[in-house]
Amino acid sequence: MHRVQVMHKMKESSGPPETQKPADVPELRAEEASRNSEERWRSVFENSAIGVALTDLNGRFLATNHVYQTIVGYTEEELRAVNFLDVTHEDYRQANWALITELLEGKRRQFQIEKKYRRKDGSSIWVSNNVSLVPGTERVPRFIMVLSEDVTERKRAEQALRRSEAYLAEAQRLAKTGSWAYSPAAEKCIYWSDEMLRIFGLDPQTTDLPDREEFLRLVHPEDRDRFNERIDKAFREKADFVQDYRIVLTDGTVKHIHGIGHPVLDETGNIIEYVGTDVNVTERKRDEEKLRRSEADLLEAQRLSHTGSWKHDIASGRVTVSPEVYRIFGVGTDEVKSTTEFWLNRNHPEDAKRIQELFEESEIQKTDYEANYRIVLPDGAVRYLHAIGHPIVNEKDDLVEFVGTVMDVTEQHEARAALQTAFEQIKAEEAELRRMTDAIASYIYVLTPDGTALYANQTVLDYTGLTLEEVEREDQRARVFHPEDLERLRQERQEAFARGKPFELEQRVLGKDGNYRWFLVRFNPLRDDHGNIIRWYATGTDIEDRKRAEESMRDENLALREQIDQAFMFEEIVGASPALQTVLSSIVKVAPTDSTVLITGETGTGKELIARAIHKHSQRSGQAFISVNCASIPSSLIASELFGHEKGAFTGAAQRRQGRFELAHSGTIFLDEVGELPAETQIALLRVLQERQFERVGGNRIIPTDVRVIAATNRDLTEAIAAGTFRADLFYRLNVFPIEVPPLRKRKEDIPMLVEYFVKRYAEKMGKQIRKIGRNTLEQCQSYPWPGNIRELQNIVERSVILSSGDTFCIEKAWLAGQEVAPTELPGPLPDTLQNQERKIIEAALSESKGKVAGPEGAAAKLGIPRSTLDSKIKQLNIKKHKFIAER
Asked: Does the pLDDT of residue 707 top 90, yes or no?
């Protein structure tokens, strides 16, 4: 359709002109008005400052003005051959067509969209399109009109602005500098940059900007008054302000801030607002503090080592020194001393020329120097100094300055002089000493402070067959020591010489007859008046016979120990009774597995020893064994003790702490008195046993754990379950492999062996010689019921050993009679009681599940234990599960 037809549809002819009917006057006038309207529309269309395009309902171009053609870079004829989606950038086609669809469906009357056009030359251009649907007439169908404006420059400016804002925000983040604006009239912050919010630990999504009172609460209490005074003064004077202050974040973190503010005034001179920046200078403050501490440490190190530092500026001749130099030269800080002449004039007259020439030569050659010389103090005292100098040159190799150190070595000089005197005295006495030692029948060595042999008396030479020259040579001297002792002796001698204290060594020495004999060699240092070691003296004693006797006794003791261990002891578990052997057999069977073990028994029966024996004979023996007494920890802290806590989890939790389960990872944890656990901790422990994972108190991170659990209790847990103080599901998780430790009254045949074991232990510990045990004492011990079990027996034996004065052990009869307490008897044997309780619980679960063991509604699920475990228990307790099926 042509452009004229689109803008104004002329009345179509119904035939050739000669066959048309003549029009009446109103029709001619209407036609003339239509032509005038078309001309005006065409003028607006062609001369519009924005692009205009008309398309049909399918988006094909019908007409476009010159501006629109310029925007897209196509001619009008080229545009008629394409669709508006063809010139729309592919990123915007789908969204544009969705809006056109809503327009055609009557959901919109018009819409505006900013999008990209793909021009004919392939470049992109941003446009703002106002799109509307033009209603049709009888002769002109509906069409779409698009008013298009080139907004590319505005878009580029917006993008540049966004990039600029992003660069500014990134620059603030990197510089740790936040910007702000504050209204004094409203007493409220009206703008904070993102970095400002980060510095103050505030969330930009959820935090309103603080008013003055809220902001002051963030300022450190010690800085608050000073901060307020400076701000108020700046407001009054309408002046800039700069100040350093500290803030305290909600988590207690303290930051150092450097703030700058500037007033913005209106035309009348009134403050509109304050704008400024806050810089997080915490790291700089810390570095400054470290630098101050470092400088203080350096000054203290110089003072302690009597070493001063100095700098000589070549151009000005000025000399700068550290405080220690003043002390070394004995001058005050108020004296004029900035020139080299001042310091050189202190040199000793005999050293002055040499040192002057050395300094001048080093400056000319630009080389380091090192010198020893003397100075004369104002009071006439002489000090010995050791000086080091180093030249500093610029890029042109010109000497700029000399830097160096000067050390007061007077004490060392005096010590060397005294040592030299002592050496001379020793040399004078050495000849006499040699004559004396040669006459002694003992084996005598003389060594230097580092252990080098200087002398051996004639007795040594006669035994070894060495000459004195060979003794002084290490390679010759070493050949007389047994090869197996060489490395040990070298290491032990070196460590002992470094300690500087008397010591002794046992060593085998080869005699000239070809046989080795054992010698005990004692080393003693000789010191000068200042405490410095100047010689070591060594004397040797033949201990061959003693070593042979010890070897024989050691072999006998070893054999005896193995015999005792095999017959009566398992780790530290002493006894050979059938009741105890049953326990030891259980330990041997369960130890190699990872099964959970529940140890029951009265107080003092040695449940922890059983647990340690299981751990030691398990595959985890090389890992940690962590013991926890659940009864000794307050109920409010037991969860934290077992599973750890996060910082701030509760009052007093100042830092994260690992719990016992984390410490026992890959090893074994022993939960003693497990029946005392509070209910909430029982639930957490059940989760560990079921899922092998837990969470710290106050934390939300799941921590996996690989720990073998061994629990112990002196309580009847089935009664605790019935009373509601202990969870049944936890009991069955713990009671995978039960071990009952018998009380001492049920293994009386072990009492003599235990008494002997404890008597030997405490007698050796207290240095007493107890050779026998009274017969009446053993009979008393076997007749006593021992309500406190082995722990009570151990305490009484220790007490008796302390009071024992002879070589026979005995126990006061009154002690046992006075402490005798009738043991609390259980209603039946503990295993029977547990079995009856288990039977009742399992039968109740089978009855409820109608005899079904597996499945979600089965008895195993109700009891919280695996099906295989329940089947084993049913078989062990001889429960007839079929009778519960019949009850359906």
From this structure: yes
> Where is 626: in which H helix or E strand?
strand 625-629
Beta-strand (E) ranges in 57-187? 61-64, 110-118, 124-134, 143-150, 177-183
pLDDT over 80 at 205, yes or no: no
CB burial of residue 557 (10 Å; 0-12, 13-18, 19+): exposed
Helices and strands (H, E) in the chain, number of each type: 35, 31
**Phi and psi for 124 in degrees, rounded to 5?**
-110, 150
CA nearest to 81, candidates 53, 62, 58: 62
Instruction: Return the amino acid letter for 273.
Output: E
Looking at residue 709, the DSSP 8-state letter turns out to be E
- Number of residues that this document lists for the chain: 888
Rounded distance between C-alpha atoms, residue 714 and residue 353, angstroms: 92
pLDDT band at residue 712, thresholds of 50, 70 and 90?
Answer: very high
The answer to whether residue 861 scores a pLDDT higher than 70 is yes
Return the CA Rg of the chain. 51
CB distance 384 to 374 below 8 Å:
yes
Pick from 158, 159, 129, 134: which is nearest to 146 by CA? Answer: 129
Assigned token pair, 237 = 């004077």
Strands 533-542 and 443-447: antiparallel
Cα gap 193→204, rounded to integer Å: 9
The two three-digit tokens of residue 332, written as one number: 């005050």
Pairing of strands 453-456, 503-510: unpaired
- pLDDT for position 827: 46
For residues 56 and 133, give the distance between their C-alpha atoms in angstroms, rounded to a whole number: 10
DSSP3 helix / strand / coil % (the chain, rounded to 5): 45, 25, 30
C-alpha torsion angle, residues 774, 780, 781, 787 (rounded to 10): -160
User: In a 10 Å sphere around its CB, with 0-12 CB exposed, 13-18 middle and 19+ buried, how is residue 275 labelled?
Assistant: middle
Give yes or no for a contact between 345 and 439, defined as CB atoms under 8 angstroms apart: no
* Burial environment of residue 866 by CB neighbours within 10 A (0 to 12, 13 to 18, 19 or more): middle
> Distance (Å, rounded) from C-alpha 698 to C-alpha 226?
39
In sequence order, the β-bridge partners of residue 697 are 645
Q: What kind and span of H or E run contains 372?
A: strand 369-376
Query: How far is 803 from 631, CA to CA, in rounded Å?
Result: 33
Strand-by-strand arrangement of the 61-64 sheet: 61-64, 51-55, 143-150, 124-134, 110-118
What would the pLDDT profile of 142-201 be if each residue is shown by its tens digit? 889 999 988 888 888 777 777 766 766 677 677 678 888 988 888 888 888 888 888 888
Which has the closest alpha carbon to 180: 170, 188, 191? 191
Residue 667 has pLDDT above 90, yes or no: yes
Burial class from Cβ neighbours inside 10 Å (0-12, 13-18, 19+) for residue 270 reads exposed
Confidence of residue 31 (pLDDT cuts 50, 70, 90): low
Phi/psi at 812 (5° precision): -60, 125
Range of lowest pLDDT (72-81, 419-428, 447-456): 419-428
Q: How far apart, in Å, do the first and last CA atoms of the chain sit?
A: 89
- Work out whether the CA dihedral 322, 323, 324, 326 comes out positive or negative: positive
CB 581 within 8 A of CB 594: no
d(CA 836, CA 29): 118
CA of 520: how far to CAs of 210, 480, 538, 835, in Å? 83, 15, 10, 66
The pLDDT tens digits for 790-814 are 888 889 888 888 888 778 888 887 7
Q: Give the bridge partners for 536, in sequence order.
A: 447, 525
Q: How confident is the model at residue 565 (pLDDT cuts 50, 70, 90)?
A: very low
Residue 793 CA to its chain's centroid (Å): 46
User: Which tokens go with 621?
Assistant: 């023996």
Average pLDDT, the chain: 82
Q: Where are the alpha helices (H) located in 445-602, listed in sequence order?
A: 458-464, 468-472, 474-478, 486-499, 544-568, 578-590
Query: How much is the pLDDT for 29?
Result: 65
393 φ/ψ angles, rounded to the nearest 5 degrees: -115, 155
